[in-house]
């Protein structure tokens, strides 16, 4: 059973699914759904459409280059059936998929750590701007009443300092 890739979004196309578009020059394009087919006919670039894998890799949202992707490339050379070879291949595929999963998780954690630092800074700025929504109105009134008294104390202290300078 061969699982193909969609030409537009790079998702898996299982046998019996999808749309095949054949151009006049005998070039065949396989699409997973009509959405991809319509975007192709509108001549959209998959690298500029935000929901495609090409965009996600180009924008750094997914792991772009990894040695495990080499195993996924299609090879058109037929191999003679060997039971041991199939057994080793299945074991290797399981091992490689585990390695790929760990690397993708690590990539995601690094991305989220950077995003979290920026988010914390944005949250602090928003909190400073809108602190009046969080503080109780009674404490704000108390601060307003205390403010003139504090200013009087500051002014008196400044006058004393000025008098000391003149002497």
Automatic annotation (TrEMBL):
Residues 6-44 form the TRASH domain. The lineage of its organism: Eukaryota, Viridiplantae, Chlorophyta, core chlorophytes, Chlorophyceae. GO terms for molecular function: structural constituent of ribosome. It is found in: Nucleus. Keywords: Nucleus, Ribosome biogenesis. One of its GO terms (cellular component) is nucleolus. CDD domains: Ribosomal_L24e_L24. Residues 143-161 have a biased composition (Basic and acidic residues). Residues 98-114 have a biased composition (Basic residues). Residues 98-125, 139-167 are annotated as: Disordered. This is Ribosome biogenesis protein-like. It comes from Raphidocelis subcapitata. GO terms for biological process: ribosomal large subunit biogenesis. Belongs to the eukaryotic ribosomal protein eL24 family.
């Amino acid at each position: 059973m061969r699982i193909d890739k969609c030409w537009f979004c790079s998702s898996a196309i299982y046998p019996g699914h999808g749309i095949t578009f054949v151009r006049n020059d005998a070039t065949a394009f396989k699409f997973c759904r009509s959405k991809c087919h319509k975007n192709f006919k509108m001549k959209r670039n998959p690298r500029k459409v935000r929901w495609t894998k090409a965009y996600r890799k180009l924008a750094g949202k997914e792991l772009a280059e990894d040695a495990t992707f080499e195993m996924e490339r299609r090879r058109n050379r037929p191999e003679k059936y060997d039971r041991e070879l199939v057994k080793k291949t299945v074991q290797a595929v399981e091992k490689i998929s585990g390695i790929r999963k760990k690397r993708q998780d690590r990539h995601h954690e690094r991305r989220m750590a950077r995003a979290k630092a920026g988010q914390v800074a944005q949250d602090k700025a928003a909190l400073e701007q809108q602190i009046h929504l969080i503080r109780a109105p009674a404490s704000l009134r108390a601060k307003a009443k205390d403010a003139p008294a504090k200013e009087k104390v500051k002014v008196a202290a400044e006058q004393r300092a000025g008098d000391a300078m003149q002497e």
